[in-house]
Amino acid sequence: MRGSRLIPAAALASLALTLSATPAQAQPADLPIPAARPGPLPPGIAVGHVGGKAYYTDARGRVLYGMDMRVLLRAGPDPAQFCTGDCARTWEPLLAPAGAQPNIAFPTGFGGRPAPARPAGFIVQPQEAPDWTIIAGPQGPQWVYKGWHMVFARRSDGRSDRYDGADGRVWNTLKYVAPPPVPAAPADVRVQALDGAYVLVDGRGRRLFVGACRQGCADWQPFAAGMASGTTGAWRVSTAGDTPQWTYRDQPVFVAREDSPMDIPATAKGLQP
Amino acid sequence: MAFDLSRRTALKGLMRGAAVTVGLPLLDCFLDGNGVALAATGSQVPVRFGTWFWGLGVNPNRWFPSVAGKNYELKPELAPIRELQPKINVLGNFNVLLDGAPNLPHTSGGPAIRTGRALTADRGLPGESFDVTIGDRIGTRTRFRSLEVSAIGDPRNSLSGRGGGNLNPSETSPAGLYARIFGTGFKDPNSASFTPDPQVMARRSVLSAVAEQRQALDAAVGAADRQKLDQYYTAIRQLENQLDVELTRPEPLQACVVPRKAPPNVPVNGEIETVMLNHQMMTDLLVMALACDQTRVFNMMFNNGASSLTRIGSTVTHHQLTHEEVLDNKLGYQPEATYFLTKIMEAWVYFVKALDSVKEGDRTLLDNTLVFAHSETEFAKFHTIDNIPMMTAGSGGGRIHTGIYIDGQGTPVSRVGLTLQQAMGVAVDKWGTKSMETNRTLTELVA
Amino acid sequence: MTANPHRRRIAIAGAMAGATLLALAAATGLPHRATTPARAEGTAAPALPAPPPGGVLAFVVQDFVPPVVPGMDACPHGTAPRLREIYLRTLPEAEQARLRLKENEKELTRLWHAYALGADGSNICSQPDRFQHAPFPPVESKLGYGLDLDGGKPGKDGCAHAEFESPTGIQGVDNQEYRALGCQPEIRGPDGNGGDALTGMKQFHTSGEWTQVIVLKGVDSLVDDPDVEVIYANTADRPEIDSKGQFLRGVSFTVNDTAPRHRNVLHGRIHNGVLTTDPADIALAETWGQGGARDIRGNRSQYHYRQGRLRLEFQPDGTLRGMIGGYRPIFDVITSGSLGGAGTAVVAGIDCAAQLASLRQYADGGRDPKTGQCTTISSAMRILAVPAFVTDLTAADGSTPKHAAPNRSPAR
């Protein structure tokens, strides 16, 4: 019999959505928000709080909003050029330093005209973009967050987050989710968000855990170590069993089943960074 | 012999008076990260495996048999295989389970069948395709681990690879395929003379020259590293084996008839007549590559997923017709689009017959081969990916039963990949991920 | 999260047995064709069994298709032409004739493909507002399926329009989407019967992408009950299918309200064996291969019925049959084509700009007080739902319980 799950079913569903939505680089409040990537922020951008929620802010402390270019495709073939006129009177673009060269553009669609030649290093797939890139906006080079969201601040009422989701989710506050911690762990160990916390998983997304199996140990699959693996932080390789197995603080580490990667046995303790 | 072990340590030896060095694998004492699994040793079983792909599916009600079992019904679009029916299995009603991943039109179905995983990117493969896994088992004793071929051109038209964005590129012209198989490096197994390639000899000698140092190195490292070195030596032996293939006078092969003349340079485009011709020439070359034991694994792409086939002189593509042409309620299919399916089935029959026409003892090359044919959609107009049409041809040296229609009853399509791998000797008892993880072999298929 | 299908089958075994017993208690009936009319308005409800103890019933939606009244009298000009033909009709007859010659096919292809593109890089499907195309000829028949959404005359936020009469006798049917696009070849085949959409939509419901379930709570009688709670939701679980493509009864599904899944809570009543719900916004999943690089609209497409409502009839065979009706934002109707971009136009030959023009012309809801233009269009889908088990993980207060015991809804 399988052990009872420590993570409730609803959280599992949430995780599934998190995983599937991650490539979408979402910012709307009703979708899982991907974490920031580690690294410095562009000059003038900081992290601030409104009502207990963390957002990116500009140098004046105004909440930064992303204009989701995907939602504006209907308005024109290059949604990066959308914000002029009334829009530009309401929203102030967060411009990149003068002379900065754009390194991203809205992609051309299937069946349309071919994309122009791009210089080396240009981001062709926005979903693969780093957190901060520069696009050619109507008022000059402008910052883009996570490939799709052109960065603006509201000219009036700039410190408010109440315009989140405005105009059919064109405008979304740029929500800051701290990058996951980087554990001193073997290369195959990763950090995964789960139900508001971080847990450790293997390269296939299966949860790692320690503990003692008392009966029915079929779900206690050893977390196998490679032949050339060595000590990393509190992680060591045990060769006591049939195959080399990782230990964490001298406790053998096990891995969850692939078909229920977040389920761990009832007596197990999930590893966290 | 003592070793001062560092990342730059290498095994040294002499070859014809010159110093040679061979680098070491990444040992524990060099690395903090995980090791990389090494390839399995090659199989001696003289069977072949290959795939044959066509894009844009079928008209399900005119192709799939109604009743599972032997002597299955041949509906109009499957009728061309009649002569070969005893050697062909049809597989239907297997589902692609995406677990919330999007059904990317013409893109999700093929990789799901080949990898047992749902594709979340818009290109590439979500994992290793099982033809590659089988190649690791049966394809290590031939010059080519596998040969990939696309009759419609485009080297990126491939569903074979180890995962990620990298695909094994396809040969795109008969002339190119000829040069690859029978050009430089080819040793005619039936030739009276045999001259080993000096370059291959040198590579082989380098490996032999360092052998003396192995024992000393073994004594200098810990238990875990010794295991690692064991695997490394296994890999070296495997490489030696492959080099031996090129250094050893091949066994004469009765069925091997080397084409003496390269095929003419012909256009490579989407016109159906051109693709049919290229497919025929490439099939003939591939058949001889198998008969001459140059490879035991192959992947033939007849057309592409979003098929760019056209009629001669026309600009209207097969893909366009599947979407634009109205589904005729009276006929129950799209007549213009179905023209291309007729030609595709004709090409499939040519392919299977070509394998079956080569005698290998009291069997045919087809009997010693397991060919897995499949599409990427069930019915292209709607991009449906449940019930994608699939077939096998040949018995893989008697490893599978043939002449059966297998009804998957809505179970995961990964059961097909699992079963074919098991039939080809891959040690796997479950395969696929999430809802497509399965340990349910198609027992009615396995001999 | 979808469970391993093999395990799921084991888990539902008990439910299947229960469903079988309950199904035996009811009369059996052959599945209706999607175009089969529901029973006539005003006729008496057939004999229906008592609801199960606890008053909870659950269903999975098998058919969710645009309802079509068969026959070409609705479209005397034939079904709508493809973009190639639309382009040709913009030309003088002599030029049309020249381009139709086989030897000029390449030239024609180049020209009609160019017709789908704007000089600024726009295309007729991603940016249909930028192309001024004439609307398609509408459905001209008086008959149409759907619901009476406006009580017979447009309200203050509606626009004047003709109304259909249902073949089953419902008067004042509002289904302007059908009027605008009911002659599209995807909706109506060349023989006048329902077109590709009747079968084309099914994959989305069988795959778990769009699968819908309906849970009825507090049902005291299948004939008359003034107070019923209706949960109309999406589930990520896949239905089980029989060899004829019909959904199996008694299969288990799970619902949660974690975005972007949808869970609509409606209030309704049963009268004479017919369940109707009060008007409310109803949102349901409608994704189109979105994900990866093709996720060009931010995973936002959905079925959105403003002032949406259900009219579903309990059947002796245990199924629910009827309609959902409501007002859809007009662009939602062509979202699929828009996402396909130029490919929709040049591969499938669909003129999205003409479709948008048709939808604008016949829009009858959400009137913009500034422009007077209606922005939503009355619409209907035919529903066939079969008994199922639904585990609704969402608590009554709308929160998602962490360790809730499954609220299993027995099938009849």
Strand segment tally of chain A: 17
Number of helices of chain C: 12
| Largest beta sheet: strand ordering of chain C | 1-2-3-5-6-8-9-11
Low-pLDDT stretches of chain C: 1-37, 398-412
Q: Tell me the number of helical segments of chain A per DSSP (H or I, 4 or more residues long).
A: 3
Instruction: Tell me which oligomeric state these chains represent.
Output: heterotrimer
Features:
heterotrimer, A: 273 residues, mainly beta, 6-stranded antiparallel sheet, 3 helices, elongated, B: 447 residues, alpha/beta, Alkaline Phosphatase, subunit A, 8-stranded mixed sheet, two-stranded antiparallel sheet, 12 strands
Textual characterization of the structure:
The complex is a heterotrimer of chains A (273), B (447) and C (412). In chain A, 8% of the residues lie in helices and 26% in strands. Chain A is mainly β and 273 residues long. In chain A, strands 3, 4, 5, 6, 7 and 8 form a six-stranded antiparallel sheet that branches. In chain A, a hairpin with a 2-residue loop joins strand 5 and strand 6. Chain A starts with 8 loop residues before the first helix and ends with a strand. Residues 1-23 of chain A have low confidence and may be disordered. Chain B has 447 residues and is of the alpha/beta class. Helix content of chain B is 30%, strand content 12%. Chain B contains eleven helices and twelve strands. Residues 1-10 and 20-45 of chain B have low confidence and may be disordered. By secondary structure, chain C is of the alpha+beta class. In chain C, 21% of the residues lie in helices and 22% in strands. Chain C contains twelve helices and twelve strands. Chain C has helices at 5-11, 13-25, 83-88, 93-100, 105-115, 176-181, 197-200, 202-206, 330-333, 335-340, 342-346, 352-362; strands at 57-65, 212-217, 225-234, 252-255, 263-271, 274-277, 280-285, 302-314, 320-329, 365-367, 374-387, 389-392. In chain C, a hairpin with a 2-residue loop joins strand 5 and strand 6 (274-277). Chains in contact: A-B, A-C, B-C. The interface between A and C is large, with 42 and 47 residues.
